[in-house]
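## Example pair
The file below holds two records. Each record gives the amino-acid sequence first, followed by its structure token line.
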Amino acid sequence: MLRPNPVPNQFLTHSFLEEKGIELAVKRLDLVHPEVSGNKFFKLRHNLDQAKKEGKNKVLTFGGAYSNHIYATSQAAKAEGLECIGLIRGEGVKPFNHTLSSAEKAGMELHFIDRTAYRNKAESEFLVELKERFGDFYLIPEGGTNGLAIQGTSEILGPEDQQFSFICSSIGTGGTFAGLYASLSSTQYLTGFSSLKGNFINKEVSELIRIHRIYSEGQYSILTQFHFGGYAKYHEKLIEFIWWFYENFGIVLDPIYTGKMAFGLWELIRVRYYPRGSKVLMIHTGGLQGNIGFTERTGIKLPMDAPQGL
């Protein structure tokens, strides 16, 4: 099974936090593994272990051309000595971007399918066709969210995190959020920051909790006003905040998930959403490889490494 590095909680020091009376720390999941970063590490580790238990030497999954999941799965499969197939939404135009070229270099066999066929990725007939084409494989869904992924993400919080009354996380497919919710104590409240436009994420998370029979001693809420226009959308204000955060705390954020969450959290602290004296933990879910692809697409430079002296 994939082995994690120690994950530190980095406490932030800033006059703004002192003024509001908030103690804020960042759980640095971006440091959990050199290649399989952040929440993807926790989503994949039990799935790859299960593939080996079932005697399967090949995994297959789905994703877009800039997908953190595709990148992480390719690296995790390489580390575990498994073959890997990635079905990528859209056309395969060379030269590949950083995400796809890195995945291919790690040994992932890339196949491109049109968007119509991609919508059938969960249909049984389509999966039978894939078995006929690629042979026996262990299926990991798009984004990696399934029961084993939720089991993995329920292991993110440890005893050292019981001191925090409020936990904050970004939301994509909901698997990480569901796992965090499952591990809350009775004194903890989980706030989710959706990177997707619309309120449908509330229903999807409720379904995950119901289907996987998740019981939690804590409570949660999901905020949908910090998406900056929707998935992979951004504003100049978000980019400026990501740079400000990096320059002040030496922590790199991405504009898809962690940047939007941190921006939203900072706004909540500004309006005194959290009571004075609160201890808040922000989960850094990694995904920083995507910053390279973002710059490739937009020409907008983002932080890549921690600045010297911080």
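Second record, same layout:
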Amino acid sequence: MTRNPLILVFLTLALVLTGCGNRSIGNKIDDQFLEPKVLSRIQDANPDLAAPTSRVVVTAYNGVILLAGQTPRAELRDQAEQAARLVVGVKKVHNELQIQQPASALARSNDSLLTTRIKSSMLVTSGVPSSHIKVVTENGIVYLMGIVTRAQANQATAVAQNVSGVQRIVRLFQYTD
């Protein structure tokens, strides 16, 4: 029986990368499948949540769901949260949907740039476990998610605060201490 060296390299790399974070491969895979399930449930809850008048961004980290974006009415915001809570595997929902028109393409582009700049700054800052932190930016608001100590959360927040263009930071960490 011959083994493909490429498969062995891939498996080794996967094991090494798993050791870099504090979540198992199973948790990471669960989160990847959870995001589209939650978004689908939200869009099924009300057609207005799937319409161009709403922008719902779903992010999962260790079963914790962040709902970000914009919707035109408060009842839609509430319906989105209720729908997300009904999905199997969801541990907690942070509903940060804003009641307003969806962000422009320019704002979304700026958000992507902000996220990249924050992640890059975290990578070069000692004491910030960037592999344990997910950065999501929506309409200039930066959401920080992850499983960290309080000191690491404070360091990550300080890094994000020093990036020009950040309007507000929302910490959604799970603390290990």
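Notes on the second record: DSSP finds six helices and seven strands in the chain. The chain has a mean pLDDT of 90.
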